[in-house]
Amino acid sequence: MQFCNETNRFTKPSLIQLDRTFYLDEIAMADTTVTAQVKTPLRPISKVGLDKLAETAKADPTVVKALKVKTVCEGQFRNLTYVRDLPAHVIDEPPGLLGEDTAPNPSEAVLACLGSCLSVGIHANATMRGITLTKLELELEGDINITGVWGIGDLSDKRLGFTDIRVKVDLEGDASREELDDLVAHSNVWSPVANTLRLPVNMDVSLK
């Protein structure tokens, strides 16, 4: 008797084939999946507090407040500046200016103060306008000639201090591009630090 071995029409798939099929299904699902990115709002400023602050300012717009700090030289170019009851704010110089590079130098601190002041104004005005911000970052750079080296270098006639400062604001929130542009421009106009840099300031430096 002869037996005929008939080949099965249905072949059991191999593990490799199963893995490949599963992988292709995963790709197909990934292609049709839409990922929603939820941006977290910045920690909010009290709207009630801002309203009270604004009303107080409008009640007597001629008030001038004297701010006070104390700077103590620790040695070399490292200085500690004390403000209110806060920990000392450190200022140093980079190695290229013979410092220990432990903190920003005075000119860098000026840029930092400007950036912080603009940021405060932008966030405050956004709150007053009902705009929720999810991102607020500022990049600053300034051009400065330091060849005078505090009066011991080249003493020829030149502009001392920053000649140009550029600020780029990376701002995101539930407002249009035009509204965000206006927010930045308005904050620049009313920034105390920006105006200190733009306008002449009466300064008296004398021996105690």
TrEMBL record:
<dbReference type="InterPro" id="IPR003718">
    <property type="entry name" value="OsmC/Ohr_fam"/>
</dbReference>
<dbReference type="Pfam" id="PF02566">
    <property type="entry name" value="OsmC"/>
</dbReference>
<dbReference type="InterPro" id="IPR015946">
    <property type="entry name" value="KH_dom-like_a/b"/>
</dbReference>
<dbReference type="InterPro" id="IPR052924">
    <property type="entry name" value="OsmC/Ohr_hydroprdx_reductase"/>
</dbReference>
<dbReference type="InterPro" id="IPR036102">
    <property type="entry name" value="OsmC/Ohrsf"/>
</dbReference>
<protein>
    <submittedName>
        <fullName>OsmC family protein</fullName>
    </submittedName>
</protein>
